[in-house]
């Protein structure tokens, strides 16, 4: 579920990179059980991993089917390539499915998840407090996060904030 965490943007970025097309050519529909009957929860960056990798797998299938056309018509843009593929009856539909490593280790009954998603961070705030009134002002906050290679730093900074 896209709930402001940038999942759709990240998924579009993956498709754009794998298909080698502009992000403006890609559209995403909201997730629904008629499309993905066994979708997973969106927690702990697991959705970026699941849907990003599933999108990657699906796009790789399409690329493999378009490979001969790309070699035959290297000057074609995306629209010409897809049109040619349509007339040659090349399947332009693909499904990707990705499984999180060690997902079988999750113990939902005891609310314990052992997903391989770890982030480390710390924060320090400088706050001015009026001890007589309790009034306070946050002067500054510094946050340091280490969560590996970011798919989209702008989105991740927003999530941290």
UniProtKB/TrEMBL annotation:
Residues 1-161 form the Aldehyde oxidase/xanthine dehydrogenase second molybdopterin binding domain. The keyword Iron applies. Its cofactor is Mo-molybdopterin; FAD; [2Fe-2S] cluster. Keywords: 2Fe-2S, Iron, Iron-sulfur, Metal-binding, Oxidoreductase. This is Aldehyde oxidase/xanthine dehydrogenase second molybdopterin binding domain-containing protein. InterPro entries: Ald_Oxase/xanthine_DH-like, AldOxase/xan_DH_MoCoBD2, AldOxase/xan_DH_Mopterin-bd_sf. Pfam families: MoCoBD_2. Belongs to the xanthine dehydrogenase family. The keyword Cell division does not apply. GO terms for molecular function: 2 iron, 2 sulfur cluster binding; iron ion binding; oxidoreductase activity.
């Amino acid at each position: 579920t896209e709930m402001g965490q940038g999942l759709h943007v990240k998924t579009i970025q993956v498709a754009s990179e794998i298909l080698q097309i502009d992000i403006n050519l890609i559209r995403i529909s909201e997730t629904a059980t008629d499309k993905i009957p066994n979708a997973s929860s969106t927690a702990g960056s697991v959705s970026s991993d699941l849907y990003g990798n599933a999108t990657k797998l699906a796009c790789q299938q399409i690329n493999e089917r378009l490979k001969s056309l790309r070699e035959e018509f290297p000057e074609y843009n995306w629209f010409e390539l897809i049109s040619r593929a349509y007339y040659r009856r090349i399947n332009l539909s693909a499904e990707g499915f990705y499984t999180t490593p060690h997902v079988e280790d999750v113990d939902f009954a005891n609310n314990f998840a052992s997903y391989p998603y770890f982030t480390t961070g710390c924060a320090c705030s400088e706050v001015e407090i009026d001890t007589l009134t309790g009034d306070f002002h946050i002067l500054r906050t510094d946050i340091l996060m280490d969560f590996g290679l970011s798919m989209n730093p702008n989105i991740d900074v927003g999530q941290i904030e």
